[in-house]
Amino acid sequence: MSVEVEVVDGVAILKMNSGKKNPINPELVEDLKRAVESVKSEASGIVLTSKDERFFSIGLDVPKLIDYDKQLFKEFIRSFNLLCLEIYTMPKPTVAAVNGHAIAGGCILALCCDYRFMVKEKALIGLNEIKLGLSVPYLPQRILQMIDERVARDVVYGGDFYSAEKALELGIIDGVFSKEELVEKSIEKVKSLNHPAEAFSAVKKNRTLKVKEECLALLEKDVETFTSLWFSEEGQKRLKEAMRSF
């Protein structure tokens, strides 16, 4: 299993463990879906983190996905987008405990959580898709726009990575902690939202409903655009260069 589940004081801690740097591949997506579903009814909330202390996630598993044909790749991207939407609309509180670099798809997973706490020690976060010749999916762009339109513009247009301190200043994350206290503070945040479960679920559903509807309406177009850019000549060239990072 590429996701380890531990329950602490009623809070489900999901630790991604898909290999060195936690690349996002079909196995991780399916295991995350199963893990989220398995704890949805019983846990008071979720903390999403990584077993790799250097990388929360490096993003899509380029060395594996580069060999996929278009149809198989489309199915994977659709599945990843739906997983992100599932996390975003999870009817319980969610906190991303970003304990290492959160790159591209890794940053997207963090953005889909209600709160994002990040380790202060040398970790970077950002969406560098544009530098790889790719598009940024609709959901993370929409989440960033709700933080601040100018921040959203600069993050997706620039494709840069930010330190924890800079990400906090921009509002991309909600707190910075030492690696020793990161998960503990994340659990505390979930527990601090100890409201009646049905009330929290109703409030969150109302807060996320419009974005969910927008994402579902644009899903196939989003998948088509990302796939087209992935298989473009420029996209393939840049992705093959990026494989050196894995």
From TrEMBL:
It comes from the Archaea. One of its GO terms (molecular function) is isomerase activity. Keywords: Isomerase. Pfam families: ECH_1 (PF00378). InterPro entries: ClpP/crotonase-like_dom_sf, Enoyl-CoA_hyd/isom_CS, Enoyl-CoA_hydra/iso. The keyword Mitochondrion does not apply. Gene3D superfamilies: 2-enoyl-CoA Hydratase, Chain A, domain 1. The keyword Isomerase applies. GO terms for biological process: fatty acid beta-oxidation. PROSITE patterns: ENOYL_COA_HYDRATASE. Belongs to the enoyl-CoA hydratase/isomerase family. This is Enoyl-CoA hydratase/isomerase.
